Amino acid sequence: MLSSLKIKPGRLMKTIHETADMFGAAFPWGKDPTETGLLRLALTDMDKGARDWFAKEVKSLGCEYKVDELGNQFAIYPGKDMSAIPTGVGSHLDSQPTAGRYDGPLGVLSGLEILRTLKESNYVPNYPIALINWTNEEGARFPYPLLGSSVYAGIKPKEDMYSIKAIDGSHPTVLEELERIGYKGDTECAFEANPVACHFEIHIEQAPYLERGNKKIGVVTGVQSYCWEEITVTGKSSHTETTPLDDRADPMLAAAKMIAKSREIALKYDGLVSTGLIEASPRSFNVLPETVKFSLDTRNYDDAKLDAMLVELKEEFAKIAEECIGKDSKIPITIDYNHLMTSRRAYFHEDCKDCIRDASHEVVGEEYTMDLVARACHDSKAMSTIVPTAMVFIPCRDGLSHNPREFSTPEQCEDGFKVLMGAVLRYDQLRASRA
Amino acid sequence: MLSSLKIKPGRLMKTIHETADMFGAAFPWGKDPTETGLLRLALTDMDKGARDWFAKEVKSLGCEYKVDELGNQFAIYPGKDMSAIPTGVGSHLDSQPTAGRYDGPLGVLSGLEILRTLKESNYVPNYPIALINWTNEEGARFPYPLLGSSVYAGIKPKEDMYSIKAIDGSHPTVLEELERIGYKGDTECAFEANPVACHFEIHIEQAPYLERGNKKIGVVTGVQSYCWEEITVTGKSSHTETTPLDDRADPMLAAAKMIAKSREIALKYDGLVSTGLIEASPRSFNVLPETVKFSLDTRNYDDAKLDAMLVELKEEFAKIAEECIGKDSKIPITIDYNHLMTSRRAYFHEDCKDCIRDASHEVVGEEYTMDLVARACHDSKAMSTIVPTAMVFIPCRDGLSHNPREFSTPEQCEDGFKVLMGAVLRYDQLRASRA
């Protein structure tokens, strides 16, 4: 299927590195100028730069271009039936604070490379193709991941997301930053108002299973379930120098024991528990804090196991709080749980998986193709609740991601792009065959 | 000895509460307007307010007034021999971020109450009395405690202390903030240039031993030893959602286990280990940090035991770092120790202790007086390295301090002030008897 297309080898990698260099290259780790990470937090000036560039590129390809109220960018490449709902391909251009160059940009730029290739090959698909850059996928600057795609999919109300505050600077809201950088668009942010027929996405695996299995392409069959909570442990703030151990109700000790215990529970249930954020208050070298707040990110492939992990974490944390109260302390240790989100196990669509699997067999062969479940969340998770969806994974070095050293080879990226293109065109033909 | 003096009951408490209300009252915890804590960080506008007030009060009593290069304020109350080196009494007006009303202010304001009482009683001591407000005793805003007295005592060079940065705002230095609030004085900050003959200080105990022993006055015989270190644990920053446990080199897990272990070591050596500060970087919910930095405050009454604790902490931390490296991680976990200070066991001066003990026997009686070792550091620790020094302790409720609920009764404060005055006047006579 791909043989009729004029693919330009190397151009995708060039685009990945040129856009990284222009918009947020940071944290060099090697001698080559491309060996850096990326800092492009959502709705910052750097993100605006990448967005402006994206708009210019897709317009030059003859795409219809729209921005919705949440800043999601839509580029509609023409098909034979211009009145039909477009086939969707999307990912995100924003990054984590110490990110690599691949992650979301690989998805958007592979989509762009598809449109470039189709144009240069004079290939007109049956239906239009919508290439989408989703806003704040990372949830790093505004602590709600998949923000743009979640509003689009009707999972979260627009107003709730507008009011989320940035973790940096003077804590501007999503709405304030959208307005500041000029990306609060006119198009309604809703599937019903601005639909796509499906959602395809390519991403690095962010785990080492493809690499260790010597596979080149992962057909992602779904996404594991997870829960995000903020835990606030409150005890007694007092003097580090003078307070006898038996008089302490030390939330730092309790939080430390909880974090250590959470690893044991992850092991027991074959899941993951992680703490990325921690904060003690008040902040002084010689004052035991009154509160210690930390994040808890709990994951499992199995919904029932995730639920069991959450129950056991709470039971063990309660025990630890009790144990950490000194026998002479009149003040207890209390725990407050702020539940941020639970995302249940997602199962991707058979049609989309089949298109990816077939394309992979064409590009890299069956022996280098494997099915797997995504551990991380992606915009495709939100999209899978409303339209047929699936993802292409490519290997990344040591499974490392959300790290400047994140790396996939040019060959791995190129293979992934070809599989994505093959899958999108197969789905276009599948739709036509059923019309 | 005190019977000839016109003590005004209640005035000291009035001064404590009035100055707290004017300069930094915060964190109310009870119904009475005096039931709040204090927020008066060193060299802030609030600290400047308290300093200006102090200057005005001591000048109105006829004191000679000097400010040295580190902002230490000296008020010299006249004695019969104006050419003699003054008897020193001091403490500090700055506070922790969530402090109580007593701590340092009790010391400075009790000294002020001595001067007021002497003046109203027309009592002229043999030698001048220097009342001192030391700069940044707490080490809370500028992380070097006893900052002003340490330069004065020749323990630290002036320039080193000038360059210490505030932990807040745009991190101004000590020198910048001294200049900003107008407290970089002309007097050389050095014992040799501006000497005192001794140092007396009153303070709340900040521990529960006086209260539990039903004692009213503690004669402080010295200060326990301690060590301050910043520990930086460095591992591998990666994705919380996807990184298998075996691939992690998680510095958060390692730091948590280290903090938990430090409590065991404190118990084993009958000492204290505390963590007041902790910081993970980068900061994101779904990124395992690359570094976790935490403070470690280790204390013991015995120098040898302190040393043994420090050795064992390092041994155990190294083991934990090793254990926390996943079997598939190519990146290790490393530990960096930033040693901030070690303060060895201090022994206070027999003459000063005797003066306090005798005064306490007069004011509250022998049965309510006990000797004890200070756990926390005070300006008297620095001063004890250069001149005869001792301290008066009074009980505080539940031993709680560095907390808005810190509380001593008016009677306890008044008793302490009388003992301090009795001790200062006894020392004045002792000096004269030996002249």
Structure described in brief:
Chain A is an alpha+beta fold.
Q: Which descriptors would you attach to this protein?
A:
homodimer; Aminopeptidase; 2 domains; Peptidase M20 dimerisation domain-containing protein (chains A, B); 5-stranded mixed β-sheet; Bact_exopeptidase_dim_dom (chains A, B); Alpha-Beta Plaits; 5-stranded antiparallel β-sheet; 435 residues; 21% strand
Account of the 3D structure:
The structure is a homodimer of 435-residue chains. By secondary structure, chain A is α+β, with helices and mostly antiparallel strands. Chain A folds into two domains: 2-224 and 345-434, 3-Layer(aba) Sandwich (Aminopeptidase); 225-343, 2-Layer Sandwich (Alpha-Beta Plaits). In chain A, 35% of the residues lie in helices and 21% in strands. In chain A, the strands form five sheets. In chain A, strands 7, 8, 16, 17 and 18 form a five-stranded mixed beta sheet that branches. In chain A, β3 and β4 form a beta hairpin. The longest helix of chain A has 25 residues, at 410-434. The first copy, chain A, is elongated. At the A-B interface, β10, α8, β12, β13 and β14 of A face β10, α8, β12, β13 and β14 of B.
Topology:
Two copies of one chain form a homodimer.
Chain A: H1 11-22, E1 25-26, E2 37-38, H2 45-60, E3 64-67, E4 73-77, E5 87-91, H3 103-120, E6 129-133, H4 147-152, H5 158-162, H6 174-181, E7 199-204, H7 209-212, E8 217-223, E9 225-234, E10 238-239, H8 251-268, E11 272-274, E12 278-281, E13 287-288, E14 291-300, H9 303-323, E15 334-343, E16 346-347, H10 350-363, E17 369-374, H11 379-383, E18 389-394, H12 410-434
Parallel strand pairs in A: 5-6, 7-18, 8-17
Antiparallel strand pairs in A: 1-2, 3-4, 4-6, 8-16, 8-18, 9-14, 9-15, 10-13, 11-14, 12-14
